[in-house]
Design goal:
mainly alpha, Endonuclease III, domain 1, two-stranded parallel sheet, 10 helices
């Protein structure tokens, strides 16, 4: 029997972790605040590094940052930050670690104003994912006018490590935008989820 070859986006390597992430998570609409915070935290740590580096440390991040509980992270003090700086299981960048505390506090403030972070962030796309029609990896943007706008608004609200490229990556990860290439088997799967 011939094994059916499935076509996928060009960016996943043959690493099973990134293949699983591409096939199961990337581009799936996320509406859970804790999960949205998780991706915001991870995308911030990814800045300047490869996504696979973050994925390989994801479970360590989960343990280190109290299962991405923004209420707990907002209460981290200098002692906790210092202990995180000694945790070899995560990316030990003091500015990024400190930004998670700042972002958790800002995240809570957004929730107070909008009810949920989900409501706030998805309002930028009118609660409906943007469906792009990119044929090749080279067609995918690293930022857009919308990610510029969201980045600017988040910064105004006190968030750190939320530049436009990080925010566009967040939008891709959380399904605010479907950037699977049109020949990828996940492209239509994502559309059918909407």
């Amino acid at each position: 029997m011939d094994k059916k070859i499935r076509t996928t986006c060009q960016w996943p390597t043959d690493d099973p972790l990134i293949v699983k992430y591409h096939d199961k998570e990337w581009g799936v609409p996320v509406h859970n605040d804790r999960k949205l915070f998780e991706f915001l935290l991870l995308e911030g740590f990814q800045a300047g590094l490869s996504w696979i580096t973050v994925l390989k440390k994801r479970e360590n991040f989960r343990k280190a940052f109290d299962n991405f509980d923004f209420n707990k992270v907002a209460c981290y003090n200098k002692r906790k930050i210092n202990s995180l700086m000694k945790d070899a299981g995560i990316i030990r960048n003091k500015l990024k670690i400190e930004s998670t505390v700042t972002n958790a506090k800002a995240f809570i403030e957004v929730r107070k104003q909008f009810g949920t972070f989900n409501k706030y962030i998805w309002d930028f796309v009118n609660d409906k994912p943007i469906i792009n029609n990119h044929k090749n990896l080279s067609d995918l943007p690293v930022s857009t006018k919308l990610s510029d706008l969201i980045s600017k608004d988040l910064k105004k609200r006190g968030f750190k490590f939320v530049g436009t490229t990080i925010i566009y990556a967040h939008m891709q990860a959380t399904g605010m935008v479907n950037d699977h290439t049109t020949n990828c088997f996940r492209y239509k799967h994502i559309i059918n989820l909407i």
